[in-house]
Design goal:
Blueprint (H helix, E strand, L loop, with lengths): L6 H8 L2 H31 L3 H38 L3 H36 L4 H16 L1 H15 L5 H23 E2 L2 E2 L3 H23 L17 H32 L4 H37 L3 H28 L1 H5 L6 H14 L3 H17 L3 H23 L3 H25 L13 H10 L1
Antiparallel strand pairs: 1-2
Helix pairs in contact: 2-7, 2-8, 2-10, 3-4, 3-5, 3-6, 3-9, 3-10, 3-14, 4-5, 4-6, 4-9, 5-8, 6-8, 7-8, 9-10, 9-15, 9-16, 10-11, 10-13, 10-14, 11-13, 11-14, 11-17, 13-16, 14-16, 15-16
Protein name: MATE family efflux transporter
Subcellular location: Cell inner membrane
Organism: Variovorax beijingensis
Amino acid sequence: MSGGLDPRTRMLLEAPIVPTLLRLAVPNVLVMVAQAAAGLIETYFVGKLGTDALAGMALVFPIVMLMQMTSAGAMGGGIASAIARALGARRRADADALVWHAIVIALGFGVVFTLALWFGGRWLYTLMGGTGAALDAAMVYSNWVFAGAVLVWLFNSLAAVIRGTGNMAVPANVTVIGVLMLVPLSPLLIFGWGPIPGMGIAGGALALLVYYAAGTLALWLYLRSPRSLLRPVLATLQLRWPLFRDILRVGVVGAVSTVATNLSIGIATALSGHFGAGAIAGYGTAARLEYLLVPLVFGLGAPLIAMVGTCMGAGQRERALRATWAGAALAFVLTEAVGLAAALFPRPWLLLFGSDPAMLEAGTQYLHVVGPLYGFFGVGLVLYFASQGAGRLLWPVLGNIARLAVAGVGGWLALRWGGGLAGVFAAQGVALVVYGIVIASAIAGGAWFGRVGWPRTTRGLLRRVAQA
């Protein structure tokens, strides 16, 4: 059955599931932690500019993460899934051609993000509660970051292309080296040194764009090298709608889910704005930990996309499901451990970014309430990635919409009924629980295969997970 397959593809189809997932996840978790560290490094140094700068960055951050999660998680997942399924079905020529289709998609979406935030940024950040110096800082940072949106899209799309072949090491190496470069570059451009003038918050954005430009070049050089499984040569540059559709049918639906996730954060930011700039900064800083979980789970989810996609392409449905539940269990343990640690010890995290009393109070409230529920977020997110591999995203999208509804309506009701900031955060926590349970129950009930026979009890769902 596996004769003629590339060894990496054969591994995804035949090797023991948990050891294989862990072996592929380790470098990928490192790359995602490093990529998240890039944002944290920038936040740390911007925090030295004061609370208004930190609040301004908090206003822009959900939109930056929307771009990151759309390019790396949603459309990136569609790219990796399409390539994995093509390789699993032994459609090697299509896999090569998909590289060019991924590049065209990245260029198009990058331009859209640039134009949307250049012309609509001020309106959006004002709607989210930005005023005065915080809004001014948000606009400076936003204009610089989104000037280079194409670089972010190209970097994440090329990384997804490589991960779709089961190769997690190359994106990991490129990202880690880039972050090491970013550590001195970010403070240099923010504060200046010698003949180099300090650019303030704009310097942090510019440093980030230099990181993505260098990383994009490195990934492209790898794809053109003899070591690459794929061959994106000019002879394969023949754009075909069926290949665009293969990416977009997963990526666009995934983008709806990503928008819902970031809307939840954006709504919570706006609701926090009722309590002042300190509350916005505190929530934005604390919520960065939730955003940090996204790349952590993606570190596990990316190999899961490759394994599930390859197995589905080869017709191995049962193995795809076993891999999915193994990934869900690992994600729950990982994210719940982080959440409990944050709930028990919130101040060490918050003090990394500032010491304003209002910021610390709001951030501590959030982590106390929401941190212990992070495990449900991890389960929902990793099942979203697995569903990308399967090319079946309806229920992950519905789960995310349910999260958005609970977070938005619940937070609004909390304010209306005098629940205060703690009530707003409680709504966010309940929303995470709904998110994880809806997606897990649907997949356990057979949603990938055209049926949803909901497990009658929680025990039934847990039994299916244990059988993995």
